[in-house]
Amino acid sequence: MPERALCWLLAVAVVVPTALIARWQHRRVVYPLYTLAGLLEALREGDYSMRGVQGGVLGDAIYDINALADRLQKERLQFEDSARLLGKTLAALDSAVLVFDHDARLRLLNPAAQRLLAGERHALIGRRAGELELDALLAAPSAQVVRHTFPGRSGRFDIRHAPLRNEGRSGRLLVINDVGRVLREEERQAWQRLLRVLGHEVNNSLASIHSLAGTLATVIAREPLAEDWREDARGGLQVIGNRAESLARFLAGYSRLAALPPPQKRELDLATLVPAVARLEQRLAVQVEAGAPLQVQADPDQLEQALINLLRNAVEASLATAGQVIMRWRIEGERAVIDVLDDGPGLPGSDNLFVPFFTTKPGGSGIGLALVRQIAEAHEGGVSLSARGDTPGAVAQLWLPLESP
Question: In this protein, which residues make up the domain named PAS (predicted)?
Answer without folding.
Answer: 82-127
